[in-house]
Write a structure and sequence with these properties.
The complex is a heterodimer. Chain A is mostly helical. Chain A has 17 helices and no strands. Chain A folds into two domains: 123 residues, no CATH class; 212 residues, MetI-like (MetI-like fold), CATH 1.10.3720.10. In chain A, helix 8 runs antiparallel to helix 9, helix 8 runs antiparallel to helix 16 and helix 10 packs across helix 15. Chain A starts with 12 loop residues before the first helix and ends in a 5-residue tail after the last helix. By secondary structure, chain B is α/β, with parallel strands linked by helices. Helices cover 39% and strands 25% of the residues of chain B. In chain B, helix 4 crosses helix 5 and helix 5 packs across helix 6. The N terminus of chain B is likely disordered. The chains are: A mainly alpha, B alpha/beta. Chains A and B meet through helix 13 and helix 14 of A and helix 3, strand 6, helix 4 and helix 6 of B.
Chain lengths: 414, 257
C-alpha cells in the first residue's frame, strides 16, 4: 500500500500529522506553543490540586448532608428502596420502548451484540457510573454500596423484563393497565418517600435533582401550550401568551425566586402558603415554560407549510394536523435547544437554595466550610469544585443523551 | 349538439357533474388570482389544466379542497357546497385526494404509516384492515417493497407514488394533482405518469395541473387553458392542440411545443 502523496514531507504518521495540524505555518507554530503551554500548565495545576493539595475529607465527612440534607439517618433504607424501585422502573420503560421501536422499525440505530451493548452503556453512562463509584469510595459504611448494587440489579432485571414484554403483542387491556401502573410508579415512590419527610424538607443534591425533574416534567406541557397559544388565531389567547412569555423572559430567575419567597406572604396566610420547595418548583416551571414556548415556536416554524396542507387535504381535524403531523416534527427539530433549556434548569436549581433558603447541594457546600472542624481553612474551593463536578456530570450526560436521541430519531436525515 | 360543442363549454361536464365551480373569484390582497371561474367536471372525467405560471391553475384546484378560500362564487363537490362550515370542509377533503408538487410526505412516519394514517384517524379503520388496504394500494403503484422505509430513503418518483397511494387510501371520489412531476428528475417522471394513467383507466375523476403535454394528449378528456386567472379555452385534446381558437392559447402552445 502506498501512502497518499503529501506536500508535507516525510516522517512517521505522527510527525506528519503534527506538521499538518499544529505547525503548518509560523503563526500556527506560535499559537500551538503558547496555548499548548498554557493548557499544560493549567492541567498541571488542576491535577496538583485535585490529587495532592486538596483536602477532600470535608466532602467525605459531610457526604450524606450534601447528598440528601438532613434526611433522618435511620430512614435511609426508605431512600435505598425508592432508588432501587426507580431503577427497576427506568429499566422496564427502557426495555419496553426499545423493543417497541425496534419492532416498528423506528430506531435508526443498528442492533448490538451483548459485548457491544456493554461498551455502549459504558460510553453513555460511564461518567455517572464512575462518579457513583467515587462517591461510594468516600463512604465508610456498607449501606450505600448495598443501595447501589440493588439499584443496578433492579435496573438490569427491569430492562430484561421490559424487553421481553415489549416483544409480545399483549391484549389491549393488559397493555393499558400496564402503562397505567407504570405511570403511577413515580407517584407511589413519592408517597412512600414523603412518609419519612414531606417534599417541603427535601434537601441536598436530592432536592436539586427532584426539583429539576419536576420542573422539566411540568414545564414541557406548559411550554407547548404557550407556543400553540402564541400561534393561535384567537387574538386574546395570542396576546395573553405573548404577555406571559415576554414578562417572564424579561425577569431574572433569581428575582422571581426571591419574589416567590417574600411577596407570597403578603397575599397568602402563612398557614396555607405552599412550602419553599413547592414554590421553587412552581417558579422553575413558570420560567422554563416561557423559554420552552419560544423554542417550540421556532420548531413549529421550521416545519414546512406543505406538511399541514397534506394533513388538511387528507381530512385530518385541526387537532390531529397539529398533534400527529406538525408538533412531532417541530419537537424533534428542536431537541438540542430543549435539552439545553433542561440542562439550564438543572443547574439553576442552585439559585433556589440561596433565594429561598433551602439547604441544597450548593448551600450545603457553603455551610459545611463553617463547621468547627473546617472553619477558616479556605476549603470552599474543594466544596465548590465538588459541586461543580456533580452538576457537570449530570449536564454532560444529558447533553450526550440528547445527541444520541437525535441520531436515533434520524433528525436531519429524513 | 355535437360532442365538440359540449366539450368546448367549461360549464358543461361529461356525464353527471361531481365538481362545479360557478363564478369563482379569489384575491390575494389586491391581486385577483382567479377571475370568474366556471368549470364543471363530470364523474370519471380527466381534466388537465395547463397555462403559464401565475395563471391561477394551482390556486383553482387548491380552492376545491379549501387549501385556499375563494372570495366569491360557489364551489360544489359531490353535492356538498364549500362554506365556512368546518364539517362541510372536512367532508369534502375526505372525498378529494390531493397530490402536491413537493410530495409533502410525512417524514417522521414510515411509508406504510403515511398511507394508513388517514384511514385510521379519519375513517377509524382498525390497524390490520388499514395495513391490508395500504399494501393493496402500494401494489397498485408498484412499491410494496418500500412499505417499511421512510420517505427520506426513497427516490423522488417513489415518494410521489407513495403520495398518490396515501391519497388513494381514503378512497376519494376525486383526485387533484398539483404539478405532480414538476419537482422530479426527468428519468422519474414516467413512473409517476404511469401510475396516474392507471388511475385514469380505472375511472378515477381527476383534475391535473401539469406541463406534461404528452400526458394531456393521451389521457385528458378535456384540456383547460388558463391565463391571468381566467379560463381562456377548453376543449378535447386532439382539438385543443391541433386547432386552438384563442390567440393566447396559440401563443402559449407555440412557446412550449
Amino acid at each position: 500500500m502506498t501512502s497518499p502523496p503529501t506536500t508535507l514531507g516525510t516522517g512517521t504518521r505522527a510527525a506528519r500529522w503534527a506538521r499538518k495540524h499544529l505547525f503548518r505555518t509560523w503563526l500556527d507554530s506560535a499559537l500551538t506553543i503558547v496555548f499548548g503551554g498554557l493548557a499544560l500548565y493549567l492541567i498541571f495545576r488542576f491535577v496538583l490540586f485535585v490529587f495532592v493539595n486538596a483536602r477532600w475529607e470535608i466532602i467525605q465527612v459531610n457526604l450524606k448532608l450534601l447528598m440528601v440534607g438532613r434526611w433522618p439517618s435511620d430512614q435511609l433504607m426508605v431512600m435505598a428502596v425508592s432508588v432501587a424501585v426507580l431503577g427497576l422502573w427506568v429499566g422496564l420503560i427502557a426495555g419496553l420502548v426499545h423493543r417497541r421501536q425496534m419492532r416498528a422499525g423506528q430506531s435508526r440505530l443498528t442492533a448490538m451484540t451483548g459485548g457491544q451493548r456493554v461498551v455502549d452503556l459504558v460510553r453513555r453512562f460511564g461518567l455517572i457510573i464512575g462518579t457513583v463509584l467515587l462517591l461510594l469510595a468516600l463512604t465508610n459504611t456498607n449501606g450505600p454500596w448495598l443501595m447501589a448494587a440493588t439499584t443496578v440489579v433492579a435496573s438490569v432485571v427491569g430492562r430484561v423484563i421490559g424487553g421481553a414484554a415489549g416483544t409480545r403483542v399483549l391484549p389491549r387491556w393488559v397493555a393499558r393497565t400496564g402503562v397505567l401502573l407504570l405511570a403511577l410508579v413515580p407517584f407511589a415512590i413519592y408517597v412512600y418517600l414523603s412518609r419519612t419527610l414531606a417534599l417541603a424538607d427535601w434537601e441536598g443534591f436530592f432536592f436539586n435533582i427532584t426539583s429539576a425533574i419536576a420542573g422539566i416534567i411540568l414545564c414541557f406541557p406548559l411550554g407547548v401550550l404557550l407556543a400553540l397559544a402564541r400561534r393561535s388565531k384567537l387574538r386574546l389567547l395570542q396576546s395573553l401568551s405573548i404577555l406571559y412569555i415576554e414578562f417572564v423572559r424579561g425577569s431574572p430567575l433569581f428575582v422571581l425566586l426571591l419574589m416567590a419567597n417574600v411577596s407570597l406572604e403578603f397575599f397568602v396566610p402563612a398557614s396555607i402558603a405552599p412550602s419553599k420547595v413547592i414554590r421553587a418548583i412552581v417558579v422553575f416551571t413558570i420560567f422554563t415554560g416561557a423559554y420552552l414556548a419560544e423554542i417550540v415556536r421556532g420548531g413549529l416554524q421550521s416545519v414546512p407549510r406543505g406538511q399541514e396542507e397534506a394533513a388538511k387535504s387528507l381530512g385530518l381535524s385541526p387537532t390531529k394536523q397539529m398533534g400527529l403531523i406538525v408538533l412531532p416534527q417541530a419537537l424533534r427539530n428542536v431537541i438540542p435547544a430543549q435539552i439545553g433549556q433542561f440542562i439550564s434548569l438543572f443547574k439553576d436549581t442552585t439559585l433556589a437554595g440561596l433565594a429561598l433558603g433551602i439547604l441544597d447541594l450548593l448551600e450545603g457546600a457553603k455551610a459545611i466550610t463553617q463547621q468547627p472542624d473546617f472553619r477558616g481553612q479556605g476549603l470552599i474551593i474543594e466544596t465548590l469544585v465538588f459541586v461543580g463536578f456533580l452538576f457537570w456530570v449530570g449536564s454532560f450526560t444529558m447533553s450526550r443523551e440528547s445527541q444520541r436521541l437525535e441520531r436515533k430519531l434520524g433528525v436531519g436525515t429524513r | 349538439m355535437t360532442n365538440e360543442q359540449v366539450f368546448a363549454d367549461a360549464t358543461k361536464a361529461v356525464g353527471e357533474a361531481i365538481i362545479e365551480l360557478e363564478h369563482v373569484d379569489k384575491f390575494f390582497g389586491s391581486f385577483q388570482a382567479l377571475k370568474d371561474i366556471n368549470l364543471k367536471v363530470g364523474l370519471q372525467e380527466v381534466v388537465v389544466v395547463i397555462g403559464p405560471s401565475g395563471s391561477g391553475k394551482s390556486t383553482m384546484i387548491r380552492c376545491i379542497n379549501r387549501l385556499e378560500e375563494h372570495d366569491n362564487g360557489r364551489i360544489v363537490v359531490d353535492g356538498i357546497e364549500l362554506s365556512e362550515d368546518v364539517r362541510n370542509i372536512q367532508e369534502i377533503r375526505r372525498e378529494t385526494g390531493m397530490v402536491f408538487q413537493q410530495f409533502n410526505l410525512f417524514p417522521h412516519l414510515s411509508v406504510i404509516d403515511n398511507v394508513t394514517l388517514a384511514p385510521r384517524q379519519v375513517r377509524r379503520m382498525p390497524k390490520d384492515e388499514a395495513e391490508r388496504l395500504a399494501m393493496e394500494i402500494l401494489e397498485r403503484v408498484q412499491i410494496p417493497e418500500q412499505a417499511r422505509k421512510y420517505p427520506g430513503q426513497l427516490s423522488g418518483g417513489q415518494q410521489q407514488r407513495v403520495a398518490i397511494a396515501r391519497s388513494l387510501a381514503m378512497k376519494p371520489k376525486v383526485m387533484l394533482f398539483d404539478e405532480p412531476t414538476s419537482a422530479l428528475d426527468p428519468e422519474m417522471i414516467n413512473e409517476v405518469l404511469d401510475a396516474m394513467k392507471d388511475l385514469a383507466r380505472e375511472g378515477m375523476t381527476m383534475i391535473v395541473v401539469t406541463h406534461e403535454m404528452g400526458f394531456a394528449r393521451e389521457v385528458a378528456d378535456r384540456v383547460v387553458f388558463m391565463a391571468d386567472g381566467q379560463i381562456v379555452e377548453v376543449g378535447p385534446p386532439e382539438h385543443f392542440f391541433t386547432n386552438p381558437q384563442e390567440d393566447r392559447t396559440k401563443l402559449f402552445l407555440s412557446q412550449i411545443l
